[in-house]
């Protein structure tokens, strides 16, 4: 019982919980509001066969460890968990870590008792995790470090703007593929840094087919084959602290302005290639509004 293991680890000050390959469900009684609650200073690791003696012995790819919201009728979404993983620290000194898991099949469609985040987390390290086929906001993170994660086929069309929402986060070596949102098909980021990331095949119903950036740095990343129904087929960027550096933006499309990149009052754009983007309304490569980008 993973929930019980987390509780005991927090109570007895055990700092690591190792989880063997398999599927784990936050509720055995179809109660959709129950989630796995992470604990302060308890670090959760998946990807084990069960015979390892050391953390570095695990093989995450060979031993998929799935935290699944599919608690009701199998392969039916409407009775899945609202929220799968939750951590909200009591103090700013509290922290946790989750490493080596797949988070999948959370579902939220505007239910008043629901909570529209597959993972809701603060002050944490998130690494080697895959977020797959969540029909809600796959990740809501604040003051987190997110490394080597993938976000695939997540879909949010109510309440929350994007498949992933982050604030004050550092995101490195992550990929975003085939996600759907409103403002930012893949990610809606504020006051954060994204580096060495890729975003492809994402769609936004409003702005930013892949990325919606507000006072963010985007570094050494590739944004391609994304689409928005309005502005910024690849990226919609706003905020004077926003900087886009050494990145590639290509083959994106939008029904309105700025198929590759829509700049709204951003600060800097350096050493970035914008090519082969297509807009139905003009400014296929880049549209600048209230911008004095250097």
Detailed description of the structure:
The model has no long low-confidence stretch (mean pLDDT 94). With 294 residues, this protein is mainly beta. The protein is 3% helix and 42% strand. It has a ten-stranded parallel beta sheet, covered by helices on one side. It has a ten-stranded parallel beta sheet with strand order 2-5-8-11-14-17-21-25-29-33, with no helix packed on it.
Mean of pLDDT: 94
User: In order across it, which strands form the biggest sheet?
Assistant: 1-4-7-10-13-16-20-24-28-32
DSSP helix fraction? under 10%
Query: What summary fits the major beta sheet?
Result: 10 strands, parallel
* Number of alpha- plus pi-helical segments: 1
Question: Which band does the percent of strand residues land in?
Answer: 35-45%
Radius of gyration, taken over Cα atoms and rounded to an integer in Å: 19 Å
Please mark out the parts with pLDDT under 50 across 5 or more consecutive residues, or reply none.
none
| Separation of the first and last Cα atoms | 55 Å
Counting DSSP E segments of at least 2 residues, the number of strands comes to: 35
Structural class: mainly beta
What's the assembly state of these chains? Answer: single chain
- The coarse overall form would be globular
Task: Walk me through the topology.
Blueprint (H helix, E strand, L loop, with lengths): L1 H10 L4 E5 L1 E3 L11 E2 L5 E6 L16 E4 L16 E3 L8 E4 L2 E3 L12 E6 L1 E4 L2 E3 L4 E6 L2 E3 L2 E3 L11 E4 L2 E3 L2 E3 L2 E4 L3 E4 L2 E3 L2 E3 L2 E5 L3 E4 L2 E3 L2 E3 L2 E2 L6 E4 L4 E3 L2 E3 L2 E2 L6 E4 L3 E3 L2 E3 L2 E2 L6 E4 L5
Parallel strand pairs: 1-4, 2-5, 3-6, 4-7, 5-8, 6-9, 7-10, 8-11, 9-12, 10-13, 11-14, 12-15, 13-16, 14-17, 15-19, 16-20, 17-21, 18-22, 19-23, 20-24, 21-25, 22-26, 23-27, 24-28, 25-29, 26-30, 27-31, 28-32, 29-33, 30-34, 31-35
């Amino acid at each position: 019982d993973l929930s019980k293991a987390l509780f005991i680890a927090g109570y007895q000050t055990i700092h690591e919980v190792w989880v063997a390959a398999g599927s784990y469900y936050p509720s055995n009684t179809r109660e959709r509001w129950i989630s796995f609650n992470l604990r302060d200073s308890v670090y959760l690791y998946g990807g084990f066969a069960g015979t390892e003696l050391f953390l570095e012995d695990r093989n995450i790819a060979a031993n998929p460890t799935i935290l699944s919201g599919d608690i009701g009728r199998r392969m039916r979404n409407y009775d899945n968990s609202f929220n799968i993983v939750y951590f909200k620290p009591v103090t700013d000194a509290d922290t946790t870590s989750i490493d080596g898991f797949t988070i999948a099949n959370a579902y939220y469609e505007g239910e008043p008792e629901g909570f529209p985040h597959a993972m809701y987390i603060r002050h944490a390290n998130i690494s080697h995790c895959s977020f797959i086929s969540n029909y809600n906001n796959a990740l809501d993170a604040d003051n987190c470090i997110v490394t080597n994660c993938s976000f695939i086929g997540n879909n949010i069309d109510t309440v929350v703007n994007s498949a992933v929402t982050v604030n004050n986060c550092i995101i490195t070596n992550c990929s975003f593929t085939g996600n759907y949102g409103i403002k930012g098909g893949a990610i809606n980021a504020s006051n954060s840094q994204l580096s060495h990331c890729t975003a492809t095949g994402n769609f936004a119903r409003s702005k930013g087919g892949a990325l919606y950036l507000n006072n963010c740095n985007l570094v050494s990343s590739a944004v391609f084959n994304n689409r928005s129904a309005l502005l910024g087929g690849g990226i919609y960027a706003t905020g004077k602290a926003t900087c886009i550096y050494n990145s590639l933006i290509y083959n994106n499309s939008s029904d309105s302005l700025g198929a590759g990149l829509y700049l709204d009052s951003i600060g800097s754009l350096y050493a970035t290639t914008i090519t082969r983007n297509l807009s139905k309304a003009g400014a296929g490569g880049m549209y600048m509004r209230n911008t004095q980008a250097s």
